[in-house]
Amino acid sequence: MKILKQRRTKEKNQPEVSKWMSRFKQREMKADAKTSVSNRKLIHKLYGLIALIVLICVIAAGLIFTNASRVEETSASLDQSARFQQDFSNLVNELNTTSIKYYQLVSSGYSKDVVEDAEESLSNARTIFDELNQTISSDSSLHNYFTNLDTALTDYRSIYEENFTTIFVGDEQDRIAMRVTPVITRNLQVIENVNSRIVSQLEAERETVSQEMETALQTSSTVIMGALLILIIVPLITLLIFAATLKQGVTYVMNRIRHYHEGDLAFTQSKSRKDEFGLIDERLSKMGSQLDQLIKQSQSVATEVVNVVRTTSDQSDQQMQGMNDIEMMMQAFSDEMEKQTDFTGTISATTEEVSASAEEIQTSMQHMNARLQGVKSISVNGKDLMIVLEQTMNKLTDQTYSTKARIDSIESKLDHITSFIQGIDDIADQTNLLAINASIEAAKAGKEGRTFAVVADEIRKLSQGTNTFSNQTKDVLASLLEEVEAVVKTFESFERQTKQSLDQTKQSTELFETIAVDNEKLTQEQSEINQSVEQINLAIEDVATSVTELANGATGLQHKIQEVTNIIEDQGKRQEELTTNVKSLEETAGRLVNK
């Protein structure tokens, strides 16, 4: 009766428990959804670190490019001034060559080769003059000097066309010499004056441009040095801070895993985190709480099963003892009936004794029937408890699958963090490439590039340090993955044990069903025994009426007693089998408790 009450109480509380579990799961899902959105500070820090390094690289590259452009512009101006001076020097040489050729013609006489050389020099001078004149603006100080040169070129062209296009000799040569010589002398003075002034002005401009270039180089060196120092120091500091945060997070999670490995499922962290490691720790905490609750529920259900099995075993022993008593009583009754057959003369005394024995048998049969009804009730209750236990084990299996899925989710997040570390490796490779390029440029620059070489070496060291940090982080993540895989294997082992417990629970249910069927058979056999006892009572009443009928009835009763004895023997064998099954069920329940 007590077991039936407990079962009814559990059936009443079952809907409330299921409602509470569903509400708890809904709250847990909402909380997980919120935390998955908000608690991602570590990933944000990693994104921020990458963005900061990229921004610093862009700014440094922009500063270096700006100063390099300025140096390049200054160098281009210096090259342009040098080319202008070279072209102007060629122009003066061509004009002087033309003057010399003209002097040679007026002093030595007409020569076709000299005339052609003079015409070629004059054409070259005009070509160079036109090219240089295009590069000079009208408001430039050189414009007036080039105007004088243009006049000299025009005079030389006029002298050539007027005097040297035809052959001349004698007096005509003297007249040409008198006309041409003053013009050539004057042009030579103009050319020399213009040359000296333009050369001095170009030298002054070149010196100014050289100073500007030197200033630009110094500024560029300072800016590049500062930018590279920032590029080294800021990423190094941020990487160290991020590495410390990552190390603390891994230690934080490993602390809980170590306590779980030691069996402390109720472990609580001394402080909480709001990043991904805090989310992992929160999921592990929920997982540990659920496992602790499931283990306690399993132990509670197993304890109840053991109690029920022990009660059933005690009642079975009592029933076995009752069957032995009945067998002894039936044996005594058989002996009495044999004496009644031998001594017919003592019919009255024997009839009274048989009547008393029949009443005692009927009372014993009623008592045994009541016990069989109790065993039947216990068997039904045991079967129901086994069904409830099977449902509980199924829920435990489902929760084990859910927990395993969460561990798989943690493993995927660790893979995601590994992909971010790979991104850091790519940045380190790019930094190393930048250092190599800087070393090449420094080698090209010579002495002026020694500073770049030092900075390039520092960048290369930074890249190597970043690679070392990335490898260490990968090792830590690999260790964490191994721990997660160990937890997954533990859950798989727990899943196998749960399946074994479920199979044993199903076997227990089948045993209870067998017990119920045997009890049905026992009840039917008890009914037959009651009918036999009623027939004995009728036979005793007939014996009181007629001695002859009593003798015949005694003989028939003896046969029926033999049948009852056989039935009782069969019942004893079945009861022994029932006792063996109950003991097997008790051992199974004991193993379930130990697990």
UniProtKB/TrEMBL annotation:
The name of this protein is Methyl-accepting chemotaxis protein
Q: Which residues form a coiled coil?
A: 568-595
Keywords attached to this entry:
Coiled coil, Membrane, Transducer, Transmembrane, Transmembrane helix
- What parts of the sequence cross the membrane? 46-65, 223-246
Segments forming domain Methyl-accepting transducer:
315-551
Q: Which GO terms describe its biological process?
A: chemotaxis; signal transduction
Task: Kindly list the GO CC terms recorded for this protein.
Answer: membrane
**Record bears the keyword Cell inner membrane:** no
- Gene Ontology molecular function terms on file: transmembrane signaling receptor activity
Give the family, as the similarity comment puts it. Belongs to the methyl-accepting chemotaxis (MCP) protein family.
Pfam families named among the record's database cross-references: MCPsignal
